Amino acid sequence: MNYLQADVLVIGGGTGGTAAALQAARQGAKTILVSQWSMLGGMLTSGGVVAPDGNELVAFQTGIWGAFLRELNHRQPQGLDNAWVSFFTYHPQIGANIFADWVKSEPNLLWIPEEQPLEVIKKGNIITEVRFNSCTIQAKIIIDGTELGDLLELAEIPYRWGWELQGQWQEPSAPIELSTLMKTTPVQAPTWVFIMEDFGEGNIAPEIPLPPIHTPELFTNAWKNYDIESFLNYGRLPDNKFMINWPIQGNDYDQNLDRLISSNSERLQFWQESFWHSLSFARFIQIKLGRRYGLATETFPLENRPYFNSNPDILSAFALHPYYRESRRIEGLTTIIEPDILPIEKGYTATLPFNETGECEAIAIGNYANDHHYTQFQLTLQPKSLRWGGRWTGTPFTIPYRALIPISIENLLVCEKNISVSHIANGATRLQPVVLGIGQAAGMAAALCIEQGIQPQELSVRTLQNALLTDIIAPQAVIPLFNLPPDHPDWLYWQYYYLDHPKLYPIDGNCPASSNPCHLSKDSHAFEGIFQRQSHQDYSFTLTQGQFIGQSWKLVTLYPEINQQLQNIPSPSPLKVYGRLNFSGQWLILEGL
Are 333 and 67 in contact (CB under 8 A)? Predict the structure, then answer.
């Protein structure tokens, strides 16, 4: 058996695991990253969710998430404004190449792809080594970044799976008792994402084959309340391609979900069914829309896939694995519950988390709405959204450090959907940008523990926050402030101010900093037209010059200074603006007035 040694071992090359390995290595720790797939990035790449949600406002584009967006903009010349579900869509391989290039450039980081953990060796409350098929790795700090929290099972670490009742934590959206459907649907539905392509008028795409189980009746009303163009533009990518991750009678699949944490054969059985379900949806789309539309072949690599179609052209249009919205969740030193992610009364932000000594222990931020996916019922959730910049966004919240630390193992951190979070709150903490932030914090914490010769629960949270805020390559915000973009000269001052004075954290999420002029992107153009305010944070702009004269567009922005300016413009007013058009959402995305 080949034995390897490291300071930090990260298992799982998904969204959080990749970020954790990068940050640990950048901080100087000898790090090994072991991934199940040849594509790094998980949800953002190999899982096919190339339309990430949340942390879209410029003020929240920090850390590795912000660096990823900037690199995407650099590498994808067509830009990222293609869909209406997200401001950022891109080809999966571009995202995977970014992560792979970053990982390969780190001298302290060894990446071992296409391996899974088989056995965990413990001595008391310490994990001493983890065995894989080709090697056994000894490390001082272990980070579980697997998609389903597999290390928790192998190491017999206490975890949660499924619903908690309202009586446990007084979560307003939790059920008082479980319905029959809730009992058979313990976690949110996974989705096997695939990519389709418009081959162009007059062209005929290859016929999508009939899967062994074909269920077109499940998709009858998939786009009932949308026209075809809106359905396709939901996840539009460059080059006339479309991410299909459709939540309404689409490719979500949640039959017998307990199989995901049972035996390997049962998980494989679920995979097969989920894959066939998505293939059935793809065939349904082609039959309804015509043979102009087909699968976008050569999108994903053809590595060893134990499912279930020998045609490589079919497989290469499908993500390497399902997009999991939920996994095993550790029993941590603290647990994030629904009140922790909801805005305080008459405010726009959640309260900051504190530990028993009164320190604020925020280490990552998120702002997505609480979004749950089930195929057979709807769950009513407490709202956590607000209108900002001309559109709806989510109210921000933070992740506490102790939610990454299990109660029973001393040298383990987690960095995926496996953090200590309730089933209800997981609907907001599971999104790609916040998981990148969790991973970055876990990797930084692991490296700091190596430096200091301590275990994660002994690490000062202020030391961790300071390291994240001052990281040379990708400084990460820990306090959400709507009006403080990361390039603001006072950004670091106000982050520290609210760590030092958390009781003064503003309920509207705006600090008293002066405005910062934004920078026009390479895709920005000038437009002239008539500005009109339809209602609060609802703006339209009718073009009076250029190619689209007479057309009305929604005005939206991600920049805090423009958000403030829009609220003060008289309506109607002639206006010259700078920005770019998004034809899927019929938006004009403002970068300057």
Answer: no
And the tokens for 92?
């999966």
Residue (of 97, 255, 145) closest to 191 by Cα position:
255
Cβ atoms of 235 and 243 closer than 8 Å: yes
Q: Alpha-carbon torsion 165, 168, 174, 175, what sign?
A: positive
The answer to whether the CB of 34 falls within 8 A of the CB of 115 is: yes
The H or E element containing residue 330 is strand 329-330
Using alpha carbons, list the distances in angstroms from residue 400 to 63, 389, 433: 17, 28, 16
Cα of 355 vs its chain's centroid, Å:
26
| Numbers of helices and strands, H then E, in the chain | 15, 22
| End-to-end Cα distance, the chain | 64
Q: Write out the two tokens for 477.
A: 């915000």
> What DSSP line would sit under 471-502, residue for residue?
-SS----SS--TT--TTSTTHHHHHHHHHH-G
pLDDT tens-place string over residues 81-112: 999 999 999 999 999 999 999 999 999 999 99
Amino acid of residue 275: F
Please state the separation of Cα 229 from the chain's center in Å. 25
Separation between Cα atoms, residue 337 and residue 426, nearest integer Å = 8
pLDDT in tens, 346-396: 999 999 999 988 899 999 999 999 999 999 999 999 999 999 999 999 999
For 154, the token pair is: 């192998």
